[in-house]
Amino acid sequence: MTDREHYEAVVVGAGPGGAAAAARLADHGVETLVLERGADAGAKNVSGGLIYAEQSAPYTVDDLFPDFREEASERPITDYKMDNIAGNRVKTYDLTPLHENDTLWCDAVLRRKMDSWMAERVHEKCRESGGGLLTDVRVNGLLRENGEIVGVTCDELDDIEADVVIAADGVNSELAREAGLMDWDDPEEWFQGVKAVVDVPDGFVQETFGVDEDEGVARLFSGDLFQDARGGGFMYTNQDTLSIGTVFHLDSIVEERAETHELLDALLTHPHLSNWLPEEYDEVEYSAKLVPDSKKVALKEPHRDRLLLVGDAAGQMQAQGPIIKGMNHAVTAGALAADAYVTARGRSGETAGQRYATLLDREGVMDKLRPKSYDWTSGISEHPAMANVMETVAKSPVGRAVLRTGAAESLVERAFNSPRLLSMLPDIKPAYVTVPTLIGEEQGVPVSGESTVETPTLEERIGDLSYNTDIGNPHIEVVDNSWAASGTAVTACPVSAEDFGGGCYRSETVGTNGSEERVVSLDTQPCVECGTCAVVADTEWEHPRGGKGVEYEQG
């Protein structure tokens, strides 16, 4: 047998799921090595982002990192609203009851700050039990013996053997795919999020939003400003910045041929946003990522052999209408994975993976991620015939008349604040576009503001990002460059567009045998590593090598 470096536990990825797993393993005295492909923890990570601490959760992030809220987060979110927009009319509903349901607290965060702070604590903890954290290391595969997973392989290090491998390597987890547990086959299983971090002057948040220094605001936006793409926008107050972005079902971006940077700009330049944006618009970072739709892809058995998956790698992102929770579930899953290993090690019978799946189910995590009510109703509510009926009824004179009543306003607000009803929300156009638009039309009031925002061009947004380009080592290759196979990437990629030649994907017309053919070409240098093209185009996709590619300063 080849001599290999061996650790009791290897954790891949130093985001919230990986940090929670490593911290809990270290608490148990387990020798733990954490491998992070970014130059710093958080350099590769993006979220909206709000992190919740739920009353029903067995672990919260401040259980594992007691100083978290004081040191690593931005603002507590104390006000939560949803704006239904139709043209220049807006109807706002207060979703604070939904926001506070099962909630101990909720903070806005920026991932570079948050993840790097947690990583320092993790490194200190793991060193005490003989491990630690290494950055600039990309884990590129699973180490196997006799067909069984026994460790990991890396670009920068020799093979490493481990008694347990906890993969917290994100939504594009190469380990989950190599193990055959996840794939990129279906756009219906994913959301795409795009975000701008906007700088604001000192005291701006308090004055503009009418909050104290220890308070913050979250607003969601839906309606007719997003080209019929199913999804919506968000705005979260940080300490001295705003996180403003959009999240859409990826299949609807594909169907509408929508360019995602334009959908973000539609939100940023809407007159309604002028109430909260500074006169001098200063966008400090543009970012994007895929988001798993847990209702469809959260793994009920997120394990194979010694491999356990946590967080986005296991599809553990709860997005049910205005319920948007991911990082808290990653924290819980990471800690439970660690506990499962410690309980199962040295015992016959139940493996660590089996124990982990049992804990996820027993602690109620899977009920949140894959609600049974959605499984029971989606076959009917998402049937095309039912969607057409809902669309017709909602737009009818009777439907509009009902929406104009005071009783309807009260009923809609109660529905938006019902976790049970939202768990059954169908992924169809009437729910995400038509009804919110009609609410804006029939219940809304005119917007008084006027937008003066001039958003950066796509070229400027790419130019403002930091890259450590891995020259000569492209991490994506187009297998079929025909327009039919890969053309969707030109519009769906967040740094590409039909009329822009400086992004990752470009459309070209080439002559062959006296005829012309439309094809796509690829330049990976501007890539933000969201993984969208892996789903919508015929490509071979992998992460860049350790420390290479895009590096986010905000996240």
UniProtKB/TrEMBL annotation:
GO molecular function, one term: oxidoreductase activity
Pfam families registered for this protein in UniProt: FAD_oxidored
Top-level taxon of origin: Archaea
The entry's keywords: FAD, Flavoprotein, Oxidoreductase
Keyword Aminoacyl-tRNA synthetase included in the entry's annotation: no
The protein's required cofactors: FAD
SUPFAM superfamilies: 4Fe-4S ferredoxins (SSF54862), FAD-linked reductases, C-terminal domain (SSF54373), FAD/NAD(P)-binding domain (SSF51905)
Keyword presence, Oxidoreductase: yes
UniProt name for this protein: Electron transfer flavoprotein-quinone oxidoreductase
Taxonomic source organism: Haloarchaeobius iranensis
